Each structure stands twice: as structure tokens, then as C-alpha cells.
Amino acid sequence: MFGLGAPELVIILVIVILIFGVNKIPQLGKGIGEGIRNFKSAIKSVHEDPDEKPKEEKPKEEKK
User: What are the sequence ranges of the domains in the chain?
Assistant: First the structure.
């Protein structure tokens, strides 16, 4: 995998922990996972019906 061995992966992991901190790692992983999931679903919907435009989310109105 791109010529990365165990020592390189450990160095990358240490740098990520120093930058984001131990508490932020799960949130970062969750955000990346949701982004990948949304991307895959968008690609799938385009392949299923390319003529149909994607649905846009309407902003929620504030209740007074």
C-alpha cells in the first residue's frame, strides 16, 4: 500500500494524535465515515437515474 510499512504508519498515527488529540479521533473518524457514506449514496443515485436531479434539502423554518 503505497510502500508504507509499519514504522511509517506508526509515525503518521503519532502525528495525527498530536494534531487532533486523543479525544477528537473518534469524532474525526465518524465525520469521515459519514462523508464517505454520503458520497457513495450520491454516486449510487446518479447511476440509478442520471436524468433525475438530486433532491435539495429545504432549510428548516424557525418557530416563533
Answer: 24-51
